[in-house]
Every structure is written in structure tokens, then in C-alpha cells.
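# step 3/5: fold
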Amino acid sequence: MDMDVSKLSPMGQLNMKNYSDGKPLYEQLIEMTKDPMKYNTELLMKIVRDNKDTEYGKKYGFAEIESIEDYQRRVPITMFDDYAGYIYEMTEEGKTNLITAYPVNHYAKSSGTMGNPKRIPVSDPSLFILNKYNYLIRTAIQCDALGFGWIEPPVINLIEAPMSTLKNGATYGAISGKIVAALGDKLPLFMTSPVEALIPDVKTNARYLHARFALMNKSSTLAICSYISMILEMMQYIEKEWDMLVRDIEQGTIDESIKMPDEVRASLMAKIRPMPERAAELREIFEAGFDEPVMPRIWPDMVCMVGISTGGFSDYLRRLKEKYAGDGYSYLFPGVTASEGLFTTPVAMDDFRSILVPDSMFYEFIPVDTDDPADIVTMDKLEVGRVYEIVATNLSGFYRYRMRDALKVVGMYNNTPMMEFQYRIDQSLSMTGEKTTEVALRTALEMTETELGFSVIDFSVYPDVGDTLRYVYLIEPDSLPAGLTREAVAESLNANLCKTNAQYGDKIVRGLLQRLDVKYVQPETYLLYRDLAISKGTASSQLKPPRILSNDIQKRFFLALLDEELNRG
């Protein structure tokens, strides 16, 4: 590496330090993959030893545990309600040493979009692991694959960091936001978006700010988001509002239609200036249309995008590539991370698979095809091709905790399982025991789109328990060919769902379920849903597609926005 690091910007120097620190950690990870069970067992014994004097550790005899078998025999499998009382005492009364001996200075806000979010403790050791894998090791992977041309700012970062403070003084919000917020007043040095978008007031149109400031910066080399859908959404907004955005960039203004508090507008106006040359470049690009991918012309130096694109987000990646990005970018797909900690990490660019991290938490797994805790296995007993629910013992005080996340073993890296997220186990439909997962619902719709030549913006499904039992797909269409009837879509969808879930097909044949129905919702319904969730305090980085409507509030929202004209056609 022949580079004078002292001549780099602060962000460039930080990225180079992350590479220098991350490269040996990446090599250590590869070494761990050769005997992952050794390291995972050592981690469990450390967790048990460190927490033997906590209230929870005394209750279950951690001091007497000397093996995995001892641990499994003494400690029960748990759910969140088993910790709710402890967490209340921690956050409201400031008590410590209840479920963990490690310092807890942050609580993650779970992603229950329309319900009551949980407070998940995140210990300092857990934050260290997140930083180690999400920044240090990730930087090493990117530099080894892409070289060092991308390391200078600005980065297009769409991860927002709304944060509040709990009664005990700990911060409360998304984990990704906690890490972003830690940069404080250095944020403008690293990222295109201003602080007003990264740590937004709920009354501020952050979508406009992300798009406007990203467009201003021609030299961006990297785009980072929690979910790849966030980049797609930004590009859809740019396509729709490019004339206003370009005019504001040209004149150094913020259109009066953009909502934000007066003090936020004043703060932003002090930072911007007219950019007529950049505006002229952008206007030429957009006036040429969006029939060909525009991102390479907007940001000619961009080489990579980072964001979760597996499971329910795979279709967003496909649409982003087809419409806006083309095939010229590299992608780094983060592994499986939740409020409870980091489970898997990528080891290469452009690979959906990620490996279980041996030193992040202790893993047990329940096969979803049996759903019997008696069949629980450790990571060395996983079988390629099977789908399992994770049972996690983490660094923040959760022990043998059922995550309700289903992951499929898709291969091995050395001796370590490679995993792909499949679905949330609680997010499935089962009206008569058919157990239809989000994967089956999404795949059936993708097959129907291909067969009938149309595309959708997004969709949801709910169980109709009226006079007959059936599924109802709520679809926001992107395009519908002339003459394509709603009945034809429903017929194709029903046939394809019978293929993606044989149990559903059996229930249809036996008359236990009726053929599914399709209803169209109005344009921008899913954007409105997203905006409403954000206005109620949900971080954009935690918003997941509402594929299966799990409560009456969600159902009433979407049914109130049916497209009556399309549904009559």
C-alpha cells in the first residue's frame, strides 16, 4: 500500500485506521472458522463466569456450570417477558447486576412498527462486537476487494439516529443510530446528509434532505443504509421530485413546501450555497429520462453500496438494479444483526451468505420443521439445507433466548455454517395449520409478476376470517398491463402460492381455505405508512416491510387506502 495517509481527510484517515485495525481481526475471524465450536464454547463459559454473581446467575447456579450440558440442564429457554421485570428495574430504578454484570449504557428500541416497542439492553461488550464486525472487519473486506479509492468522503449515509434518554441516564434508540450518533459534530465531515437529516426532528422532511444533499455531492464513492430499500426509496423520490431538487441546488434554497421547523430551516440555510454548475449537470441527466440507470451518471465515482438485501429485501435490490443502478456496482450485504446482537457477518463482497460469528454470542438452534425445544442443537450440529430458529445467549443479559428468526444453513466456510435469513417465525399465516411464511408469499407474487408482466411497489397479506377463510393480498401496483384483471392476478397468485407452500395447496383442494383475493391500494400508500411510523418515533433504519398484517391497526390503515377505481376494474 503506497499512500501518504497524512494527506487524507479526517474521514479518509479514519477509514485507513479502520483497515489497519480490521485486517488482523478479519484474519482472526478466518482462523476461528476452522474450529468455531471451540471459540463459541469458550465464550459461553466466559459469560457464565462473568455473570455468576448477578441476580439471574445466582438463581440458575451459574457458579456450578462447567459445560454446555450443565448450562442447558440448569438454564431454561426464555422469551422477552422473562426479562421485562428486570429491564423495568434497570431503566426506571437504575438497578444493576440483575441480568448482566457488564455495563449497559444503551437500550435498543425494537422494530415493532405500530405496536409498543421493547427496550433491549445493549452492553458495552456487545457494542464493541458490533463495531468490530460492522466497521473494522467490514472496512478490511471492502479495501481488499475494491482497493483504497473509495475511502475518501463524502459517504451517502441514510441511517438515521433519533435518540432519547431513559430515566436511568442510558440512551434509547436503534443500535445503528447509536453508532452514527457517536460521531457527534464530526458527522458533516463524513456524510453527505446534514445532522438535521441524520438525527431528525419528527417534523422534518428527512427524505428531501437526504436526496438533496446526496445530489449536491458528485464525488460520493459509497452509499450506506440499513436496508437496501432505503436507497431505492431515495431514488424514487429523486425521480419524482428532481425538478424541485435541482432548482433548490441551483438557487441555494429549500422549497417552501418542504416541512421542517423554522429553526431547522434556518440552520440548514446557513450551510448551503447556490451550486449552478452542479444543478446544470443534474438537469441534463434528469431531462434525458430514467429509461436507463441514472446513478452512475449522478455519482460517477461510486463503487459500492452497503445494505441488507436478503429475505424480504431481495426484491428491492432487484428493482434498484433494474431501474436506477445497473450492474456496475459492488455490494456488501451485512449479516444478520438484531437488537439482541450480531449473529452473522459477511466474509466477502457480493455474497448474500454470511457466517455465524463464534465470539459474538453462544448459539443454539431449534429446527423449524419440528419446532420442538427437545431437538435443540449447537452450531456444530447444523445441517446444510435446513432452517432453524436461533436461541441466543448474548453479551447483554439474555440467556437461551428464542429469537423467533428463521435462518437457513446454505453452506460451510471452513467448519463454520453460512446462513441466510429467511423470515420472522411470528410473521407467518396459519388459518388452518398451513404455516405460510413470508418467503412463500413473496415468491408466489414474484412468480405472478413474471407470468403476467406487471410489477408492484410493495404488498401485504392478511387473513380474512369473514364468511369464508382466505388470504387477501393488498398490492400497490407499479404497472398494470391493459386488460389485466384483478381476478386474473388472484388466480395466478393462488396457483403459485399452492406451489410455494404445498400445505396451502392441500387446504385449498380440501376446501378448508378459499381461493385468495387481491385488492389494490392507492399510489404511495407504503410511503405514507413509512412516514406515519417515523412520525410516531420509529427510526427509519428499523422499518421493515409490513408483509403480514399482524394487528387491526395495520389492517385498518391499508383498507382505508384501497384504490376503488382499480378494484372495480
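# step 4/5: annotate
Residues 65 and 71 are 6 Å apart (CA to CA).
# step 5/5: archive (pending)
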